[in-house]
Design goal:
With 311 residues, the protein is α/β, with parallel strands linked by helices. It contains 12 helices and 12 strands. It has 2 domains: 114 residues, Rossmann fold, CATH 3.40.50; 176 residues, NAD(P)-binding Rossmann-like Domain (Rossmann fold, 3-Layer(aba) Sandwich), CATH 3.40.50. It binds glyoxylic acid.
């Protein structure tokens, strides 16, 4: 029997798989302060965490027996993977199982910002809807437009796969000039020519503020920016500036630079649709994510290869 620290509640059917084989220390609150995390990980062989738990070298040093860190997320920018590698700790994530949920939510945001859904809801609740009007709250049509996807991984491709249903043509930002597929264009071309730009790249030092003032200034004035990946990929200050200068028409965000804080200039804008990091938040997907994290841990503790090690 090994000892596992589980930093959040997971569905009981999944929890019981873990508890039937190992001793589980469950944090059943919605957050786990860093000092407490360090204290509780001290005697653990495995750690199952979420994206808001920062797992750095110091936390790993507090858990000298750790063999595996399993995050219940596809993104693992909260974990110092190099430090884990140095200590021989395996890091796992939960790819694939959340792809469709995030792709669906991305489309919810694309449609929501294009057709002013959040704005209309706010207007009605404020008692400000007076009558139907021929030119009232006009949005922008998606049919016949171009969707530019930054990040041609599983989620980016799943978002693109749904584009024909809305009559949109999808293009991807190409990293290597060798790619000959015409759907892959340079990031600059993508920014210049897309009507909707949607971000699906991981957060890395290379993608930090990838969408900055310069990138936003390249976009069409009528374009919409959508981010369901990670907040720091977009410079929020620059985005607020671009919206004020009317360099782009709107933005829909699920992720932020300093979650749960949102840049105040974005909060006050009607042409910004805001969601509280809900990309993978469906009952089915969150259960599948927890299950995959548990299976990763059970495999490592049994001396087997995990299903989803991070590379
Ligand atoms: C969610 O943001 C995830 O990375 O799974």
């Amino acid at each position: 029997m090994s000892r596992i620290l589980l930093t959040r509640r997971i569905p009981s059917s999944v929890f019981s798989q873990l508890e039937s084989q190992h001793t589980v220390d469950l944090n059943d609150r919605d957050s786990l302060p860093r000092e407490e995390l360090k204290r509780r990980v001290a005697d653990k062989d495995a750690l199952i965490c979420v994206l808001t738990d920062k797992i750095d070298a110091e936390v790993m040093a507090s858990g000298p027996a750790l063999k595996v860190i399993a995050t219940i997320a596809v993104g693992y920018d909260n974990i110092d993977v190099a430090a884990a590698r140095e200590r021989g700790i395996i890091v796992t994530n939960t790819p694939d199982v959340l792809t469709q949920a995030v792709a669906e939510f991305t489309w919810a945001l694309i449609l929501g910002i294009a057709r002013r859904v959040g704005e209309g809801d706010r207007l009605i609740r404020a008692g400000a809807w007076k009558r139907w009007g021929l030119d009232f709250m006009l949005g922008t049509e998606l049919h016949g437009k171009q969707l530019g996807i930054i990040g041609a991984g599983r989620i980016g491709r799943a978002v693109a796969a749904k584009a024909p249903a809305f009559g949109m043509k999808a293009v991807f930002a190409r990293r290597s000039p060798d790619v000959k597929d015409p759907a892959y264009i340079s990031l600059d071309q993508l920014l210049i020519s897309s009507d909707v730009v949607s971000i699906h790249t991981p957060q890395t030092p290379q993608t930090y503020h990838l969408i900055d003032k310069k990138a936003l200034a390249r976009m069409k004035r009528s374009a919409l920016l959508v981010n369901t990946a990670r907040g720091p990929i977009v410079d929020e200050e620059a985005l607020a500036w671009a919206l004020d200068e009317r360099l782009i028409a709107g933005a829909a965000l699920d992720v932020y630079e300093k979650e749960p804080e949102v840049h105040p200039d974005l909060l006050r804008r009607e042409n910004v649709l805001l969601a509280p990091h809900l990309g993978s938040a469906t009952r089915e997907t969150r259960t599948a994510m927890a299950e995959l994290a548990v299976r990763n841990v059970l495999a490592v503790l049994a001396g087997d290869e995990p299903l989803a090690p991070v590379t």
